[in-house]
Predict the 3D structure of the following.
Amino acid sequence: MKARDRQRLELLQGTLDMIVLRTLSWGPQHGYGISQMIRTASGEVLQVETGSLYPALHRLERQGWLRSEWKQSENKQRTKVYRLTPAGRKQLVAQQSQWDRLHAAIDGLMNARESPA
């Protein structure tokens, strides 16, 4: 196993949806583009596999947070492009707020100098 592979982190349960919504807040994108943006923006630490990404995209679309449409790519291939809906933007704000609270709580715990008891 390569050192880079060992450094990759498993996503916490429920964070994939937030990450996908965040990625699509930058603009419409197809599935492969979403996975590449996640990998690049995370400094190559997060890599979302196809088996996780596409079920998440379909779930988010069923919830009304994404819309998709078929388009023709520059190389004349049909590709499904996903875009955030207004409801998806609201959901992203809510999930970001929850994430910020969780991050602060974990940070406080990890940086505590002594037992709170």
